[in-house]
Write a structure and sequence with these properties.
alpha+beta, two-stranded parallel sheet, 7 helices, 16 strands, about 25% helix
Length: about 375
């Protein structure tokens, strides 16, 4: 054990999806790890908390204080809000009193002894500065949208005594000495204002507890709600509401007459009122792709056969051939009465395969062509 006479203070910052959709639940992102490391350096390295006062028995028993910070809404500048919340919580925290008699350690309850506050030497508070256009423009306390387009970020942790706790620069931007000194002067003013607000809130809480009242977050617990920017109740005069409503009704246009008599257009259908144009009766006209094409050609072989047999009856022989992408359709030849009916397949159509095929759920469109033979 390196420091047997000192207690332990641990900081844990959690970024949940409740604060922003970009954060993942149950997983520490790179941003979360950097923020936790920065908080540890800000509070531990600055020695703002007297860790020796947390020791009960040297090398055996010490107090371990854990500070959990939960982000509720992410609108930029997380480290500043986290540092203010952490130091305010540590200043308001009270630990149970303990005594040592020989080897026995006794921890007293809140009813037996008053709890003891932590020994805090100073309040380090972080102030963030965003730089744009390679340090040409400086912005204090950037929002979430401004952080997306920044070129660099400088975090200065300082207390009200103008003592610098840490300085961290990120983003790979080069800063001059005058820019860093300017940021430190601005941070000293902001830190003094924030520290005064925290101390004033703590004093109000102490005075309210002495009077037996509740202050701050504890005040909102009985109402089971948390209000921000609470306003006084505004009364509304409704004495002339009836007269105003009567005037509005008199000035309004009369309602349109509605024909409530039903009209029977067809068995099983009834229309009440005028209604609107029916869009269900629109006929679907065939598209250009589905139009049939007709081609007339003369079969010389059939003409020679008809002239040789002398079976010409003065009627034309009509042969219709349907061309389709489907392999199931057959081609039928229409011939005059008294002649033998034959099936013929055109040479340019592949023969149907005997192997079965799987029908598709979507109906396949086919394109049909008709060929007419005549002489």
């Amino acid at each position: 054990m390196n420091r047997p006479t000192e207690g332990v203070v641990h900081f844990n910052l959690e970024l949940s999806p409740m604060a922003s959709p970009v954060f993942e639940a149950g997983r520490n992102s790179e941003l979360c790890v950097k923020l936790n490391q920065l908080l540890e350096r800000c509070f531990r390295n600055s020695k703002c908390i007297d860790t020796e006062s947390l020791c009960v028995v040297s090398g055996e028993k010490v107090w371990h204080i854990r500070v959990d910070i939960h982000l509720l809404n992410h609108d930029g500048d997380i480290i500043d809000a986290a540092s203010i919340a952490a130091i305010a919580a540590l200043s308001h925290f009270r630990r149970p009193d303990a005594s040592v008699q020989g080897d026995e350690v006794t921890v007293y309850s809140l009813e037996e002894r008053d709890p003891i506050p932590l020994c805090i030497h100073h309040m380090p508070i972080c102030v963030s500065f965003a730089f744009f256009q390679q340090g040409k423009y400086l912005l204090v306390d950037p929002t979430e949208r401004e952080e997306r387009v920044k070129d660099g970020l400088l975090v200065v942790a300082m207390n009200k005594h103008r003592e610098i706790c840490i300085i961290q620069s990120s983003g790979g931007i080069m800063l001059f000495k005058d820019q860093v000194l300017k940021c430190c002067r601005i941070a000293s003013v902001k830190v003094a204002e924030i520290t005064e607000l925290i101390q004033k809130a703590l004093e109000n809480d102490i005075q309210a507890r002495k009077r037996g009242e509740k202050f701050g977050f504890a005040e909102s617990l009985p109402d089971q709600k948390i209000t921000a920017l609470k306003m006084d109740v505004t009364t509304i005069d409704t004495s002339d509401a009836e007269d105003t409503a009567r005037e509005v009704v008199e000035k309004a246009e009369p309602p349109m007459e509605v024909n409530s008599k039903p009209v029977v257009w067809a068995p099983g259908t009834v229309q009440i009122g005028e209604g609107i144009e029916n869009a269900w009766g629109i006929e679907d006209f065939p598209s250009d792709d589905e139009e049939e094409e007709e081609v007339i050609f003369i079969d010389e072989n059939k003409m020679d056969m008809a002239n040789t047999n002398g079976t010409s009856t003065g009627r034309n022989v009509l042969e219709v051939i349907s061309l389709s992408d489907s392999e199931e359709e057959d081609v039928m030849i229409l011939e005059p009465e008294g002649t033998e009916r034959k099936e013929k397949r055109p040479s340019n159509i592949n023969k149907q395969k005997d192997t079965p095929f799987k029908e598709s759920g979507k109906k396949k469109k086919t394109k049909t062509k008709k060929f007419h033979q005549s002489w």
